[in-house]
Predict the 3D structure of the following.
Amino acid sequence: MNSLTRIQNTLTGGPVDRIPVVPIFMAWAAEYAGHTYGEFQWDYRALTASLLKVRERFHIDQLTTLSDPHRETADYGAKVTYQEHSVCRCEGPLIQNPSDVNKLRRMPIDAAPRMLDRIHALEVFHREMGGDVSILGWLEGPLAEFCTLRTLETAMTDLLTEPDLFHEACSVTMDNAVTWARDQIHAGADMIGVGDSAVSLVSADMYREHILPWHQRLFHGIHDAGGKVRLHICGAIDHLIPDIVHAGVDVLDIDWMVDLAQARQIVGDKVTLFGQFDPVRVLKEGTPEDVTRAARENIRDGGPKHFGLMPGCEIPPGTPEENIAAFCPGEGCLMVEDLKVESAASL
């Protein structure tokens, strides 16, 4: 069974030989492959070379194209500065006052260089690994994109005092997102990651009223284009999970501070969960034994069906290689038997 089939069967509850391992690599992968993080963000050739080298070493089941939260923001016209060793920085909000929402426009992919760079990355992954490994495209969700265009603090205030501005912006940004998702799927992605971390800061009522309809519209568009949806919201989202179930998501990433057993109980077999041990305290600062202990608890609480193993968020720079190897199925894995599932006998 190859990685693509393993993930496809995990989503449907079909038989798999082992639990898929799906960590998110960005800055760590760049350093591992001899690139700066700035190169990884800016140049698809550095990104793909880095992730293919990580895949060769650790046998992860999904190649990701996530690099930074500002690709769309830059193509809308905001000034984004790429730095050598840290995440790129938006120098100022594109939407400084409500009338600036008119700056947003529909963008064909050939007029959006930062988004086009991700398309090129997907084409490389598809050429090198298509059909063998799951390939994850990526885009920013409705609130995340609004925050990068408006600043986090102002965007949250807008949701309380001027929500129509958020919806007006989303009417453009989410139309573009659906189009870009379609382009990414055409380039080789079988799944689209949607980053919407700011959603963890809103109440369940606010999520249902303002965010959920846009999630449903976006995810429906991705499904219509033939892709699956992986939603990534950093932070504590226990209060939102009952409503996220109705968003149409296929995979929900679960950060380390969420009650994984409770999340599983809420979503049942309707949603695949990816998670969840602490990427800093356990993975970066712990020992290989700490990693395997936490990962085994995750498998117990979240699996074995409809579950993928990963830290709650990105692999942090400076994480010891032996700690990553401890839970990934490549050489040095301490969890080979733990990753196997009973359905292997029927394959």
In short: The chain has 16 helices and nine strands. The radius of gyration is 19 Å.
